[in-house]
Amino acid sequence: DETEFRNFIVWLEDQKIRHYKIEDRGNLRNIHSEDWPKSFEKYMKDVNCPFKIQERQETVDWLLGLAVRLEYGDNADKYKDSTPDGAKNADNTAKNAEPLINLDVNNPDFKAGVMALANLLQIQRHDDYLVMLKERLTQDAIAKASQSKEGLPVALEKHILGFDTG
């Protein structure tokens, strides 16, 4: 809502962006004023936001991006070597393990996924879906599938595309 939006803008300026000096933030902090939209518009011009104040989602995204850039700039050494949570463990796991080692082939979702894939690829069904996978994923089957070319060649210059490629 409007009050939350205004509070959010004030919080971003006070805590992260800090474009104005503290004493110059009064008009922006007065969120119940009827002149707040004018103050906000001036603020957007001052921080060089390319969006109009009516484009709220774009403005919020842009201001958040600015806040992240400024936060990183203030603490570059702190964030320079950081990685997302769990990324270190995931990297070590990926290096030390087969990619599909944690796959549960008895999971009903896995079986349903295999059957859906078989339908999509028009693979003949088998009672044991693991056998079906093994038959279609052998090196010979993959080589044969990559060699076969079906269909007729199409002369694109004879078709109207609906646009000019230049």
Short summary of the structure?
This protein is mainly alpha-helical and 166 residues long. It is built from 9 helices and no strands. The chain has helices spanning 2-17, 26-29, 36-46, 56-74, 76-80, 87-96, 108-121, 129-136, 139-147.
Report on the architecture of this protein.
- The chain has 166 residues and is mostly helical.
- It has 2 domains: 2-81, no CATH class; 108-146, no CATH class.
- The protein has 9 helices and no strands.
- Helix 1 runs parallel beside helix 4 (56-74).
- The protein is elongated, with a radius of gyration of 29 Å.
* Molecular shape: elongated
Major β-sheet profile: none
Radius of gyration: 29 Å
Count of extended strands: 0
> Could you state the order of secondary-structure elements as H and E?
HHHHHHHHH
Helix content: 55-70%
**How many separate domains make up the residues?**
2
Overall pLDDT score: 79
Protein name: RNA transcription, translation and transport factor protein
Family: Belongs to the RTRAF family.
Pfam families: RLL
InterPro entries: RTRAF
List keywords for this structure.
166 residues, mainly alpha, 2 domains, elongated
